[in-house]
Design a protein that fits this description.
The structure is a single chain. This protein is α+β, with helices and mostly antiparallel strands and 341 residues long. The protein has 2 domains: 4-166 and 288-327, Triger factor/SurA peptide-binding fold (Orthogonal Bundle); 173-283, Chitinase A, domain 3 (Roll), CATH 3.10.50. The protein contains 12 helices and 8 strands. It has helices at 4-8, 63-72, 79-95, 101-121, 128-135, 139-163, 197-213, 218-225, 249-256, 286-301, 304-317, 324-328, and strands spanning 44-45, 52-56, 59-62, 173-181, 237-241, 268-270, 273-281, 320-322. The protein has a 4-stranded mixed sheet. It has a 4-stranded antiparallel sheet with strand order 5-4-7-6, sandwiched between helices. Helix 3 packs across helix 6, helix 4 (101-121) crosses helix 6 (139-163) and helix 6 (139-163) packs across helix 10 (286-301). The radius of gyration is 27 Å and the shape is elongated.
């Protein structure tokens, strides 16, 4: 069954991290985002104007704003949400990011379109309108949550783009390969039986001859025959890499011995089985470097733990003070408000 938060994305502002299958060779590392600073002390009560519930950096959250938001969102306790909201708004402004009403409307329309299929898959067939009515989700709550999710996502991407630099790919080449495994591989089908050494050698020689004669293409042969789960579906493409020990010595030696684009190596053996390698590019272009950087940004966006650390760091590092009396309309004993739920 769906929950309001699962539908509206009040907690999860970005898609869940993608699951990547393992390959026999290490993946290219993604530039890491610097870790957030140590957590600041909990929010402390402070003398503020009577109608100010909290102050985030230099921006006030007033009692009227709190009550207005409380009414809009159906009575949910919102001070922490509003503090997080204020932090996100300030960071978005700092990054030059905004969300238009047209973007919010488009996202809501897309949610309405996809919802019936998602509800059916979850075993609760209903329309989006039926769900909203059943759960008592107001239009205000819907628009607020969608806007916040979009603003947070766009702001986070802008931060990542400023932190992840275009890589220096000097000395790197791009290759594709075909592997006929003679031993079980990480991430491969456990029911698949590896070839014998002789059978693998004969088959790789036949594949190379078929490619050379034009009977098939390297990409088609890789998709149909390669046992490398990480590259077979991509026509055997491994992308760019340097001669730095990322791959096995035999593999790097064969790859870097190729001189002309399109050259295919003689069959060679590693601990995983028999290979052939084709040289795709001798050097990275500016477009290649930009594409790799964009992929690193996209990968970082999918890292939910990294995203949570970023958002938590924004809240922890904000100077937040609260006025308990303003929240009750009278005088109450000061109390601490923890930075985390």
């Amino acid at each position: 069954m769906f929950s309001k938060h699962a539908l509206l994305g009040l907690a999860a502002f970005l898609p869940a991290a993608a699951v990547h299958g393992q390959t026999p060779t290490p993946p290219r590392p993604v530039t890491a985002v610097p870790a957030p600073k140590p957590a600041a002390p909990p929010f402390k009560p402070e003398k503020l104007p009577a109608n100010v519930v909290a102050r985030v950096n230099s921006q006030n959250i007033t009692r009227d704003q709190t009550f207005a938001m409380l009414a809009t969102l159906g009575g949910q306790p919102l001070l922490r949400e509003m503090i997080t909201d204020s932090v996100i708004e300030q960071e978005a402004k700092k990054q030059g990011v905004s969300v238009t009403e047209a973007e919010v409307a488009k996202e809501i329309a897309e949610t309405r379109r996809k919802f019936p299929q998602q509800a059916m898959a979850a075993g609760s067939p209903m329309s989006f309108s039926e769900y909203v009515a059943r759960e008592g989700i107001s239009e205000g709550l819907l628009r607020w949550s969608v806007r916040r999710r979009l603003l947070t996502k766009k702001t986070y991407r802008k931060v990542l783009e400023s932190q992840i630099k275009t890589p220096d790919m000097t000395g790197q080449i791009s290759v594709s390969h075909i592997l006929l495994a003679t031993t079980p591989l990480p991430g491969s089908d456990p029911s698949a039986k590896p070839l014998s050494d002789d059978d693998a050698k004969k088959k790789i020689e036949t594949l190379r001859a078929d490619i050379a004669s034009g009977k098939t293409t390297f990409a088609a042969a890789a998709k149909a025959n390669s046992n490398d789960p990480g590259s077979a579906a991509k026509g055997g493409s491994l992308g760019f890499f340097a001669k730095d020990g990322r791959y096995l010595p035999e593999f790097e030696k064969a790859a870097f011995a190729l001189k002309k684009v399109g050259d295919v190596s003689e069959p060679f053996k590693t601990q995983y089985g028999w290979h052939i390698v084709r040289l795709d590019k001798t050097a990275a272009t500016a477009e290649d470097r930009t594409a790799l950087r964009n992929q690193a940004v996209a990968n970082a966006e999918q890292n939910q733990q990294q995203f949570n650390a970023w958002l938590g760091g924004l809240v922890r590092n904000a100077k937040v003070s609260i006025n308990p009396a303003a929240m009750t309309g009278g005088t109450t004993a000061p109390r601490k408000v923890s930075a985390t739920k």
